[in-house]
Amino acid sequence: MSAVPEIRRSAGSKVWRWVRRNKAASLGATIMVIVTLAAILAPWIAPYDPDEQNIILNLGPPTAEHWLGNDTYGRDTLSRIIWGARVSLFVSITSISLAMVIGGAFGVVAGYFGGRTDRIIMASMDVLLSFPSLVMGLLVVAVLGPTMMNLIVAIAFTAIAPFARIARAPTLSIRNREFVEAGRTIGFSDLKIMVRYIIPNIADEVVVLGTLWLATAVRTEASLSFIGLGVRPPTPTWGGMIRDGFENMLDAPWLVIFPSLAILTVMIALNLLGDGLRDATDPRLRHE
């Protein structure tokens, strides 16, 4: 009964070797490692306190002491970008992980049982898919209020439906495979079959979608912060930094440019990594 976990570990090592040989995916992974380490080590590597104000440095341009300049309150832009990475990554990773668990569970249940259960679940998912992710997130945060936890819930809510659909499709083909029938024959419950046999065999597709949706989550978090529905100030967020610098964009363009570049860099890196993982899990492209 341990064959399935061993097969998945072997497949995982092959995927990792493929990603390492894919230059674009390797670049994306490297960038994300650097950004993640910077976020984790922010208290030690940020040159200044992100909330420390110095009115003398109001709208100060980039200098040797403040590499990315200062904002309207004289706060160091580089330090706030580094600390902002913490918020962006934490919100994005937590919300997408939550969506993967909830949406994946819905998809597995719908695909495994089929029939009326499948129709009800997928009809509900189609309703969620009818709303653009940003609009759905905006509605949820507007109702619940602009806090970090509500922001996580809002972004997760927008991503549940895609994960349900991506989990349902392979479940439909796996539920009648020989090893699943063998589990039923020896008396395994439906829950045990789904956990032991279905989920390990669809994990690749769900993880790949999760990597791609992380980029969407970063964009959504920044967009909601930009319109004032993100984490409350003075906590630094990339979208909030862009909003604060928007009014002085002509006089101090660095206040908008550098946070925007941070968002763009992370989104490109996540898409490169996600594309590499998708290619690695596609049997038509993998020759090992």
Automatic annotation (TrEMBL):
* Residue ranges of the TM segments: 24-46, 89-113, 120-142, 148-167, 252-273
Q: What are the BP-aspect GO terms?
A: peptide transport; protein transport; transmembrane transport
Superkingdom of the source species: Bacteria
Q: Name one Pfam family in it.
A: BPD_transp_1
InterPro entries per UniProt: BP-dependent_transpt_permease, MetI-like, MetI-like_sf, OppC_N
Instruction: Note the topology in the membrane.
Output: Multi-pass membrane protein
GO CC annotations, alphabetized: plasma membrane
Q: Where in the cell is it found?
A: Cell membrane
Q: Which UniProt keywords apply?
A: Cell membrane, Membrane, Peptide transport, Protein transport, Transmembrane, Transmembrane helix, Transport
CDD domains listed in its UniProt record? TM_PBP2
The UniProt family comment states:
Belongs to the binding-protein-dependent transport system permease family.
Name of protein: Peptide/nickel transport system permease protein
Organism (species): Chelatococcus asaccharovorans
